Amino acid sequence: MNAIDFAYAVPLLASLVGALLSIIPVLYLEEIVSVVASVASVLGAVLMFTLPDTSHGIFYVDGLTKVMTLTISLVYTSAVIYSITYLKHLDNPLFQKRLYYFLLNSFVLTMLFSVVANNLGLIWVGIEATTVTSALLVATENNETTIESAWRYVIIVSSGLVISLLSIVLLYAAGKDLQLASYLFERGSGGLFTAAVLLAIVGYGTKAGVIPLSSWLPDVHGRAPSPVSALFSGVLLPVAMYGIVRVVQPTSLPEVHLVLLIFGLLTVAVAAILAARQNDYKRMFAYSTAEKMGMILVGLSTGPIGALGAVLLLVSHAFAKAAAFFLTGNLLARYRTTHIHDIHGVAARMPKTGYSLFFASLAVTGAPPFGVFLGELLILAGVVRNYGIVLAAFVSLFLLIAFIGINLRIVAMVFSPSGSDPMERGRVGTFVPILNIMLALAAIGLAPLLPHLLKGVLGI
Amino acid sequence: MIHYIDLLGFFLIVLALFMQWQIYVTRVIVTFATASMLIAAALLYSGLVSGRLPVVILAALTAVVRGITIPAIVVRGLHAKPHRVREQKPVLPIATSIVVSLALVLGSYAIYNLGLRSAVGAQAGFLPLALFLQGGFLIVTRRNAFIQLAGYLSMENAVLLLGSLVLPGFPFIVEGGVILDLVGVVVVSRIIMRLRESGQSGEDHRHGELFG
């Protein structure tokens, strides 16, 4: 490993060291090392932007890798800091705190590995390893429902990912090389290649929140601890989406774009309707995540403008949705329910949480001036250009349904009258989501830089 | 060279069909272990004939991990609770499962020869496809978590068969990573199953919070 490879490895090494040190039984050590490791991971990710791209050796680093690494690292830091207060509210956790942090750091390590690996097979290994490291985190709250959710997650996602492993074997048979550097610069063709790419979309789609393949998603997001839900929605699903992006990147086959479009439209339509009729706020945000993943697929099917929008949406949604899930953690800790109709007067009783939740909800549903808005606008521009205005109107209709449905529910919770005393506590629990909302806003500033950063990726 | 793969495929399909009509978890897991050992033996033969050390190592790993360790992890403590030991209520009656699984084998053969053989090139390519579908079918037609896990493991074995014997040359480092992941999934599944069963008396509970 040369010096530049080592520099690329900093985020990975930071989370690895964080994981290993977390299991040492010293009071508060797991929290301290996890915070230090996550901040080091952010610094390492920022350092990557100063280094040239690389496609030789063990890492494949281009603009997309850098953007993904920084996004994962920032949400990782938020989740670690937020966990410090959140874990205090758990009555009967499944395991000791140090095991929680060990799994959290390991989970991030596997995600970071997936986005820097220079081999399609190892990307698959990394994405499957995220299942192993995150499954027990889902069951942290230790009740029958969370454990059932964890089992559904393991069996559905692992079975789905075997389909993408099958696709990797077929890609190898078609091209005799799984090195990303070689794969991305050879125009794949032929029946075997096409079949392999389509299987990869189905397989990774199981993990990326694509409907109807990911029935595990609302259960897991609904029942996992809020910092874990934030990591799932904010960065895990995009990491699985990264698997799809890398496989489809060298192809311009119309049938592949058609499949991406069909899965994308189906996901947007179904998830928007389901999000708009939920009575459980965590499941509502889970379906909202699926809807955004659907939009990313639509974006990927439309060429350079849509792909640019997809990346911008991915980044800004990561921060906005992480904020939303952190805030649901605050609500759950105080109100002890996830039922929307049982929660009233959040703005009066928990003002910082209430107003932050309102803005986070606007951010995730694509209100201007948040990055999600611009990302979706670019995707819609791609849809108009490639498929016409009628399809763009169809997509917009479902975005509107989700926007109205989700925000009406949030407004009902936040601004309804309340007769009880204020009950907001904890600075960290309110500060971290606000910071993430600001990042979702700041993500719009990434837009002018993206064409340069992503040059050569997805035809940009 | 191709004949031993055909023979292996025949036995693997027989074992996969045998799995479909089993209701006892131990027998399903032992059948999976037997299938893994057969694949390991074929890999060993292939490695020795071709003189490729990575294939021999893969054979050893397959025997140790898929043939011995994973089945041992899964069946450990299985008899402590009676409802774990057998499938209580399959989604499909066993007789129907057998008919459908036979149809899946024939369907795989037809689909492969009509649509995929020209692209893949290997004569035995339908075997992994048939085994893959058998594994998936086991997952969707059973409620017992251990048998669902066996279905997942069978799908993994089908991909191993494809990547290492039918279309040989799949990078060893990836195969190694796949095996590590497999062990991880089995260990985590086993922990979740233990938690799941310590909190309930059967496997047929309804979870109102997981609907909608």
Mean pLDDT of chain B: 86
> Which regions of chain B have little confidence, pLDDT < 50, spanning 5+ residues?
201-206
Strand content of chain A: under 5%
Q: Give the biggest beta sheet of chain A.
A: none
Could you explain the architecture of this structure?
The complex is a heterodimer of chains A (460) and B (212). Chain A is built from 20 helices and no strands. Chain A has 460 residues and is an all-alpha fold. Chain A has a domain at 270-460. Chain B is mostly helical and 212 residues long. Chain B has one domain. Chain B has helices at 2-20, 25-50, 53-75, 82-85, 94-120, 126-141, 145-166, 172-198. In chain B, α1 (2-20) packs antiparallel against α2 (25-50). The longest helix of chain B has 27 residues, at 94-120. Chain B is globular and about 50 Å long. At the A-B interface, α6, α7, α9 and α10 of A face α5, α6, α7 and α8 of B.
Could you give a quick summary of the protein structure above?
The complex is a heterodimer of chains A (about 450) and B (about 210). Chain A is mainly α.
Layout of helices and strands:
The complex is a heterodimer of chains A (460) and B (212).
Chain A lengths: L2 H6 L1 H13 L6 H22 L12 H24 L10 H20 L3 H19 L5 H32 L4 H4 L7 H18 L8 H7 L2 H23 L5 H23 L4 H20 L3 H32 L10 H4 L1 H14 L6 H17 L1 H27 L12 H15 L7 H4 L7
Helix pairs in contact in A: 2-3, 2-5, 3-4, 3-5, 4-5, 4-11, 4-14, 4-19, 5-6, 5-11, 6-7, 6-11, 7-9, 7-10, 9-11, 9-12, 10-11, 10-13, 11-13, 11-14, 12-13, 12-18, 13-14, 13-17, 13-18, 14-16, 14-17, 14-19, 16-18, 16-19, 17-18
Chain B lengths: L1 H19 L4 H26 L2 H23 L6 H4 L8 H27 L5 H16 L3 H22 L5 H27 L14
Helix pairs in contact in B: 1-2, 1-6, 2-3, 2-7, 3-8, 5-6, 6-7, 7-8
